[in-house]
Amino acid sequence: MEVNDRKGKVEMGSGLFPDWSEMTRECLLDIFSRLSQEQRWIGPMLVSKSWMSACYDPSLNTTFDLEDRFLSYPESINWWTPEFEDKVDSFLQTVVDRSEGGLTEIRVRHCTDRSLSYAAERCPKLEVLWIKSCPNVTDASMMNIASNCRNLKELDISYSYGISHESLTMLGRNCQNLKTLKRNQYPRLNPHMPTVIAPLDYLARFPRYGNAEAEIIARHMPQLKHLEIRYSTLTAQGLASVCESCQDLEYMDLYGCISLGSEQITACTSSLIRLREINKPHFNFPMAILRMSIPGNPRDQ
């Protein structure tokens, strides 16, 4: 049996336990800070108004991280729909409001310009931005990020093909503290191609200006320590520019960069004395040929 006494205790069997509903806000914040954002959403926020209010505290909303959530589910083509993007946008905007401008980390997928510009205009302290697989994030919102979030240290724009080299230029000029850049692309056809869940027309839009982006990185981001450009179309010329300028590089991922040869990579990276790890392309893949039917072609009849 449970009986509330006058001292704020609850008697359960032979022991006494604190009445959690009477805990101070400071205690609640300390406890809730040990929970993940998702754990707070599905637990404490549903207990009482005081607990919900504590969960809204700006100190508990400095990070918006859905990456583990995405990784815990099989990828779905439904993630690429406007309806799903609307939900992600709404979620991000809610956390931006709760942070009261104190948001420092965003890790999300499938958001759009709408929520990202909303965050850029209200969260100047942003340091980490992961927006992988965001087809409707474009240069428009990235220019806002570059203008308003100059403390940015880590940027992941992998598989977000609406972001062009123009954004890279602005980010490099304005965000002088940027140390990590991830600009990975989906693979093109090869025998080891992993399963990719994405619209076919979107996969066909992959950035083809590998050398141009490499030149921008070399010119405007010499302070980089971590660079990932999987499946980039850059050649030895572009890689040489990056290696000549970015002398602080400690990690480089060139996996899938099929325009680079092993000897070229060795020659270009030989000057990077701080380089600890490099992920090179695989050079022994057999040639794969895909024959596709062309509508109206008599040979395909």
UniProtKB/TrEMBL annotation:
Coiled coil: none annotated. It comes from the Eukaryota. This is F-box domain-containing protein. The lineage of its organism: Eukaryota, Viridiplantae, Streptophyta, Embryophyta, Tracheophyta.
